[in-house]
Fold:
Amino acid sequence: MAVNPIASVLVVDDEPDLRTLYELTLLREGHQVVAAGDLAQARDHLAQQHFDVLITDMRLPDGLGLELLHALNAERRAEKCIVITAYGSAENAVEALKTGAFDYLTKPVDLKQLRAAVRAALQSQRARPEMPANAIGAHRHGQATAHLAAAGVGTRALDRIIGQADCMLQIKARIEKVASSMAPVLIAGESGTGKELVARAVHDCSHRAAGPFVAVNCGAIPENLIESEFFGARKGAFTGASQDRDGYFQAARGGTLFLDEIGDLPFAMQAKLLRVIQERRVRALGGVQEEAVDVRLVSATHRDLSALVASGDFRQDLFYRLNVIELRTPALRERTQDLPELVRALLRKLCEESGVAVPEVSAAALAWLQTRDLPGNVRELENLLQRALALSNGQTLEPADFGAQETSVGLPEKITPPAFQDTVTSTQVSADIPDDLQTYLDDQERQVLLKALKEADFNRTAAAARLGLNLRQMRYRIQRLGIAMPKDPAFDDADTE
Ligand SMILES: Nc1ncnc2c1ncn2[C@@H]1O[C@H](COP(=O)(O)OP(=O)(O)OP(=O)(O)O)[C@@H](O)[C@H]1O
Ligand SMILES: [Mg+2]
Structure:
């Protein structure tokens, strides 16, 4: 299990419940936590004490969390700042990063992300104090998250790419070779094959490694915002643009801009992007002057871009510009020999994240995994392992933990899609389809667990019994879902297995 550095943390949020939740979460990590409800209180604490990490909500009763950041820059009363912004306000987040925030989290805050962000902040502080503040931003799946630390700190992305199959050795060699040039890279591959990991590796191996890595999900930005998100906007460009703000191109200056799901870029935007690439200059919305951009472009797609070009949905000229160097991430079925190594590495990662011991995997379970068809590739494998970890109660994962025998509730060998038209509307599926199934299921599970825990006065053993789980399964779920537990040792009664 990873050792977490201990830190002093100041948490600023005006919502008492949220403040307590963050506080408890960080206390459980062993940190020393001080909480404040507004800017004034936060300033008092900062005047009295130096903090390793400051976590602040953006909108506070007496001003913007950003103001604290300005003060910090001047006086250095805290080393690293993590800003919490409302969902969909990417511009605030970019602004925060530019002002020197280390990272930002989007509401509702995932406690696991909160813990990870604090850990990353502490690590980066120790690892390289001179790292530029605005190193990495990310905008994925409609949810904005920026990860400064992920690129520069810890293991290089290239080393995190697992696989000894020829095709993997080739791709790793090519990454190192092409990294140093400015040429645009297009990464093509099925979903879950590690396109983003490869993009980070290209950045990491390049001389821009110390600069920002900004990841943008091209399909997740509303069309009416896309231009200002990419190129920035000058004050007064549109209603609500009350001050100048930068876009992703400016945020990635000196680093790498990762255009994920480039195939989803709206057609109108494709022409604008092409122009920027050709001229290497951007003009912010409502701006008069163009500014030079020094950005390396890496794009990725799980769709067949040449087919999109053929069907007229993707501009051919843009395709040629982006596809100067093509890297193809192979599907898992093209490299089954890598499976055992991947399983071990992914298990290690998952267990480390949730603080449980890494189990063995039986030969039978491995053999069973080898026979699976995994269209979601490494990501799907990761999900399977996560599920098995939650179900298993032994030291070794067996085929049954993967649902191998249960044909009814387990994973069927082959899913026959229902005849589409009428069936969908006539079944309950039409009720409410969540945007993200996993998040939805996690929320449901979290609610049930919390209810059971509360009713059992946070005695995990009792709550587990109520839900037909054993303690190990319960602890795993609590960790995975980031459920904050009271730190009081009196609650930890029967928790030694
Ligand atoms: N070769 C690999 N070695 C180790 N981990 C990998 C590898 N490939 C993918 N992963 C892991 O699998 C998950 C999915 O990878 P990633 O997000 O890079 O895939 P992707 O191709 O961008 O998928 P999508 O098309 O679904 O966005 C991540 O957790 C990543 O770390
Ligand atoms: Mg991806």
In short: The two ends are 17 Å apart (CA to CA). The longest strand covers residues 78-85. The chain has four domains: 8-130, 157-329, 333-402, 420-492. The mean pLDDT is 81.
